[in-house]
Amino acid sequence: MEDSNYIKVFTGSFIITQLIVDKLEAVGINAIVKDESESGRLAGFGASIQGQQDLYVNKEEEEATLQIIEAVSSDLEA
Question: In sequence order, what are the residues at sequence separation of 6 or more whose Cβ sits closer than 8 angstroms to the Cβ of residue 75?
Fold first, then answer.
């Protein structure tokens, strides 16, 4: 994804990543979720860290996305 207009903004568990994706979709931000372990499993390979997903968004939406990630993180800590 080096030549794309997308930037990685988060890495975490499936559950937290999906919570963030839901919040992003609610405000009209489309995210891309990349799961290396699931891709490897489907291809017949193993992965060292199971359940970790990377979340990518358009660079123009990075600031709004980071605010949502911070809000979700704060809610989870409370």
Answer: none
